[in-house]
């Protein structure tokens, strides 16, 4: 883990209300893995007080980027950062996706801003000669994020883009592409979607790795603010920041 | 350049400097050691330890508020036995005061916790948490009851000759009454303050933002309240004070000492900047040099009203 004062090298809007900000942070860029996260302090003031956690979106040499939407004061300030501004970053934090597995095929299922960790994962999976099918879901076409993703199957609840329905409908729809092959699933998105995916894969042996989120203060295990129920530890909670944010979906109770 | 004496002498405990890291904001010390050099810090106060492990409250446990945060962790901890077995050993490599914070649901349980921990040589002292706002059994019930604070202080004092501080709640009418009781029953210091009870609602769901409904407010938002409580204790009770409450910049440390604190604890700021304590120390030395102060302790209670 490092605490780095990182220089902003790019900050742009890539879709309606979706921003991508890039920093020069070699110490972090050199060691961070897909699915890990960063905790950003957006200014030196005491408002907002806490850092904001973001999935690592992508890494390019010494540069790291995060994807976000403007939700509150912290992300608003972040969206206004200019080139050569500095941001205080803690990272890499947490545990990323498991990248050593035998399955040749992979399915990435992303809901809304759940796309954030997948450009980097996509890159690393392709480096390992994995095949990728990416399902991107949202309420409408405005929520569909395609940045850095590959081999897309799109679904929207209102039918404004792709298949009308949700990611489960889309999974069923493309089942012929996956039928009788072993594959591995990576997902990130709203809790409702993750729950539906857990249910969908409950009866088979497909490994699903989910990146989950929570409010948190520190990001490295001291505030205990981000508990999650885990099947291996009935008497204690696991912490999303330290034990996650990526979990085997079978292991967590959400 | 360090001709300034930053050390603090408390009954039964000498600190190399007045900066301690507050309970509940540093876990058991291990995680924050990645970001800061614990050897340079006056001391560390552990997460509250209870006799048996506690799972803590269900999520959501925290929410940010203007310049503050509410938390209702619910004393999640590994329990005294596991602490002694797997956690305390980490500190054997560090030269810093180790204070165990203890929470319990009965006076007898406090006694038992302190008795068990007291035999571990590495532990330098205790902070008795009679003021956790986030648990149903015990917690604030104790901190609001003079007779119980008296009994808990008396029992724990009997179980240890090490440094003993009672961590007081600000959620009372007269905090100095409780400080006086702690002094009468033999405590070496009081820690003031624990968090203030607060809440926050989501205006769309109309539900509380934290599952426990109320939580403890911490951070810069509570600093003026904490300072006033320290001042009240200083003026009305003759017991050393460890000042806590929203310390976020080095100047806050000075302010707490002027108001009466012998030492201070950094809490919420550890989440924001885990290296804060060390950054502050250089500034404290510099302040003393420019103000021609030989010993930082001279500041304690040096206010002019």
Number of strands of chain A: 17
Distance between the termini of chain B: 33 Å
Morphology call of chain B: globular
Structural class assignment of chain B = alpha/beta
Give the second-level CATH assignment, the architecture of chain B: Alpha-Beta Barrel
Helix content of chain A: 10-25%
Strand content of chain A: 35-45%
Helix and strand element order of chain B: EEEEEEHEHEHHEHEEEHEHEHH
The CATH homology group name of the largest domain in chain A: Nucleotide-binding domain of ferredoxin-NADP reductase (FNR) module
The CATH topology label of the largest domain in chain A is Rossmann fold
- Please identify the top-level CATH class of the largest domain in chain A: Alpha Beta
- Mean residue pLDDT of chain B: 95
Strand content of chain B: 15-25%
Determine the structural class of chain A based on helices, strands and strand pairing.
alpha/beta
Question: What descriptive keywords fit this protein?
Answer:
heterodimer; A: 254 residues; Elongation Factor Tu (Ef-tu), domain 3; Rossmann fold; 7-stranded antiparallel beta sheet; 17% helix; globular; B: 305 residues; alpha/beta; TIM Barrel; 8-stranded parallel barrel; 4-stranded antiparallel beta sheet; 30% helix; 19% strand
């Amino acid at each position: 883990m490092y605490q780095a004062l990182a220089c902003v090298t790019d900050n742009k809007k890539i879709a309606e209300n979706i921003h991508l900000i890039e920093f020069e942070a070699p110490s972090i860029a050199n060691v961070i893995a897909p699915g890990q996260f960063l905790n950003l302090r957006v200014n030196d003031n005491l408002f907002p007080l806490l850092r904001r956690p973001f999935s690592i979106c992508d890494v390019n040499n010494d540069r790291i980027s995060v994807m976000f939407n403007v939700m509150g004061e912290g992300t608003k300030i972040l969206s206004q950062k200019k080139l050569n501004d500095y941001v205080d970053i803690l990272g890499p934090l947490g545990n990323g996706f498991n990248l050593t597995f035998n399955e040749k095929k992979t399915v990435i299922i992303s809901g809304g801003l759940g796309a954030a960790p997948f450009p980097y994962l996509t890159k690393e999976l392709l480096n390992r000669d994995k095949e990728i099918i990416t399902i991107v879901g949202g309420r409408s076409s405005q929520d569909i994020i395609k940045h850095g993703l590959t081999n897309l199957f799109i679904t929207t609840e209102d039918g404004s883009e792709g298949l009308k329905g949700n990611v489960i409908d889309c999974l069923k729809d493309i089942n012929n592409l996956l039928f009788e092959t072993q594959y591995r699933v990576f997902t990130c998105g709203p809790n409702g979607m993750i729950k539906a995916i857990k249910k969908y894969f409950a009866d088979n042996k497909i490994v699903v790795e989910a990146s989950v989120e929570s409010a948190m203060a520190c990001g490295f295990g001291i505030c205990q603010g981000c508990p999650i129920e885990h099947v291996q530890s009935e008497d204690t909670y696991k912490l999303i920041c330290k034990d996650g944010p990526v979990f085997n979906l079978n292991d967590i109770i959400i | 350049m360090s001709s300034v004496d930053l050390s603090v002498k408390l009954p039964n405990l000498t600190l190399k400097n007045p900066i301690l890291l507050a309970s509940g904001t540093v876990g058991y010390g291990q995680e924050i050691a990645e970001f800061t050099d614990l050897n340079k810090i006056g001391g560390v106060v552990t997460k509250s330890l209870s006799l048996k492990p506690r799972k803590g409250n269900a999520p959501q446990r925290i929410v940010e508020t203007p310049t503050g945060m509410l938390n209702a962790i619910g004393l999640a901890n590994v329990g005294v036995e596991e602490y002694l077995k797997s956690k305390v050993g980490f500190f054997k490599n560090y030269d810093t005061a180790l204070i165990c914070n203890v929470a319990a649901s009965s006076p007898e349980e406090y006694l038992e916790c302190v008795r068990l921990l007291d035999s571990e040589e590495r532990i330098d002292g205790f902070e008795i948490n009679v003021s956790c706002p986030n648990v149903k059994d015990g917690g604030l019930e104790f901190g609001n009851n003079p007779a119980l604070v008296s009994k808990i202080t008396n029992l724990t004092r009997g179980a240890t000759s090490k440094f003993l501080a009672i961590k007081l709640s600000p959620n009372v009418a007269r905090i100095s009454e409780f400080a006086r009781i702690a002094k009468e029953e033999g405590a070496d210091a009081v820690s003031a303050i624990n968090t203030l009870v607060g809440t926050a609602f989501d205006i769309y769901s109309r539900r509380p933002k934290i599952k426990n409904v109320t939580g403890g407010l911490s951070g810069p938002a509570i600093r003026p309240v904490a300072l006033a409580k320290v001042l009240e204790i200083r003026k009305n009770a003759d017991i050393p004070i460890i000042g806590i409450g929203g310390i976020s910049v080095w100047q806050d440390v000075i302010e707490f000492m002027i108001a009466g604190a012998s030492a201070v604890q950094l809490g919420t700021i550890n989440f924001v900047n885990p290296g804060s304590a060390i950054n502050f120390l250089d500034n404290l030395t510099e302040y003393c040099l420019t103000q021609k102060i030989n010993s930082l302790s001279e500041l304690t209670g040096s206010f002019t009203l």
